[in-house]
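Incident log, structure service

09:12 report received: a user says their structure output differs between two submissions of the same chain.
09:20 pulled the input from the user's history:
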Amino acid sequence: MSSASRVLSSSSCALFLLAASARGQGLRWSTTFDPQNAPTDQVFALHEFDDGTGPALYVGGDFHWAGSGPPVNHIARWDGTAWSRLGSGLGDDLGGAGSVYALASYGQALVVGGYFVRAGGVSTNCIAQWDGTSWSAIGTPWGVQLPGVVASIAVDGSALYIGGGFDFVNGVSACNVAEWDGQRWLALGSGIGVGDFNAGVSALVVFDDGTGSALYAGGTFQNAGGVRARNLAKWDGVAWSPVGVHPFDGVDGWVSCLTVFDDALVVGGQFHDAGGVPAENIAKWDGAQWTPIGAGHADVIRTLTTFDDGTGPAMYAGGFFFPNPEKWDGSRWSALGAGVGPFGNNMVYALSAFGSELYAGGNFTTAGGLPSTRVAGWHALTGPVSTFCFGDDTVAVCPCGNRGIYGRGCENALGSGGAWLATTGSQSPDTIVLHAAGEISSALSIVLQGGDLILGSSAYGDGLRCVGGHMKRLYTRSAVNGRINVPEAGDPSITARSAALGDPIAPGAARCYQVYYRDPNPNYCPAPLGDTFNTTNGLRIVW
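09:34 re-ran on a clean worker, output below:
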């Protein structure tokens, strides 16, 4: 019998089952994509699309295999359980250099852009569509004149826009950017980067700056439609214009990605100023002025998206920095646990929501410290009660390498696998009881309540602290057989106790909980790395 089994009574075993059932509900990296069940090379594009059989995550890149079936050839479908092919995939006629760089939904089809000459045996040249059954070209004769590449796609109603490096689409002269109106390909003025062989468009997005919806294009160029534009330009349906005020329009370096967040256009890439304002690799334009986003990032940003992890809509950035990716909630940057890695091999090229997870794709071999090659999912908080802050290395590394069992806090001197926190009861009326188990037998335990969760998770004694904001010590107990249950008979409820401490909890408000407990063995995870106390996982309740 293991040490964990010896300290568990039948009631604590029930708690373990309760905790185990909530594992998938917490902020943590998924372990679904192990090295044997993932794309075999770099992933550049991710997109959720429903081909009529249900939503799935579509994954594109320069890989040939995903899962254990036959070759998928640069694009594959993940339904949450298994990989499947899209016909015979994309033709590999360019000396093995075929790849997918962009994915988008357009009507009932998935549009794919990249560097290829066929899709499912159909001649398509860098742009194709998949209807759930078969591949087809968009327009005739077909696609982009080679050599060329489609690196970005944007959709606005019936308008499909593509950007990249090309001169012609289906015989239409269109420099690096073009529009499909549902029937034919059209040039957008004289295009972008005319006369500059090295110019190209890396990112497209539709945004309304208050003067009407328009297409914004970013990349590496110095002109758009014959007008000076530093790496970023706006198409209003008639003409191109710079973004900002001359001579400090646009940004002074490469724009690799664009998104819309908090009523502003957000620009990511590799640059040092935006509109003359210092901004390291990321900035926003609200239609009137440029503003940096926090302190920016020290290295290149390759992808931006928005996602709600259960704590509210936020913007997420991926690229080549550490930890990677990161979340911007409107006021601060925070890590997604331990991120992807290892350091130096942790590029994220794509981010996309799928179900209740945010997926990252790129060139990495771990996520949250666990094997997860090139694709990984970050779980959102789901339901009124959800867990987070695990000491199993998926969120952060425990101070002394004292990794706990999946879903618990960091390991302790008892060898229980780490302590865990779970609940029973309901929020309204408040009958919630917090249960902690797996602690040292008679450990002094303090139940903490905070208004915020700390995604980065900092070392705290022998464990991790993940609760912040306005902190309250709700209850103090001595464990019995390594367990505490609060509130007990005669104690005020959690909401009543919180109100008495000056923090009334309104219906619909969220609070986070964690227990820290004494682990007095000075030889287990000794200072300065650790100390004589440890922590459970965290728990979030929406009241």
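09:41 both user submissions now match this output. Likely a transient worker issue. Closing.
09:42 reviewer note: The mean pLDDT is 90. The longest strand covers residues 200-208.
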